[in-house]
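Quick start: what a row looks like.
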Amino acid sequence: LTCNARVCEAYPQVAAAAREGKWEFMGHSYDQRPIHCEPDQAAIAQRIGALAQEARQAAASGRLAQAMQGWQQVLALSPGQPQALVQLAQCHLQQGGHERARELLQQALAVQPDHALAHACMARVHVADGDREAALAALDNAITHEPAAWGARFEKAGLLEDAGRRREAALSWSTGLQYMPPEAMQSPQVQ
C-alpha cells in the first residue's frame, strides 16, 4: 500500500484493514505536494539527488533495506520518477519480491517507455514467472532502446543458451563483448 502517512489519521479503517491483510506499507511523506508548488525547487532537487546517491551507495554495499528506504524517499518527493521506480524494483527483485517489482517497473515504463533498464529488469520478472519468451522480448526492448546495453545482451545470451539456441546465443555474447567497457573486461567474472 503506497500512501501518505496522513492516511493513517484520516482513514484509520483503511490502514487497519491493510495491516490486517498483511499488506506491505510504503509510506511517502506525511503530506504530499507537487514539486512545482514548492517555493525552493532547487533545494528539493538537491535533496532528491542526495537521497538517490545515498540509496545507490546503500544498494552497492548490500544494505537493501536502507536503499529501499532511500528510493521511497525519492518517490515521496518526486512521485513517478522512473529511475527511482526502477531502482526500487531492483531491490525488490533481489529480495524475491517479483510481483512488487513488476508493479514498479510497469509504473516506470508507463512514464518512460524507452527506459532500457526497466525493460531489462522486467525480463528478470518474466524469468521468475518461467516465461522465457517474454523475458527475451523484454531484453530485445532493452537493447532496442539502448543498443550498447551489454549486460542485457549477456542475459539474452544466457537465456538463448538455456533454450538450446546456441548460434543466437553466440551472436548475443559476441555483440555484448563488443560493447563491454574495458574496465568491466578486467573483472574476475570475465577473466
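That is the whole record. The two ends are 44 Å apart (CA to CA). The first strand starts at residue 2 and ends at 3.
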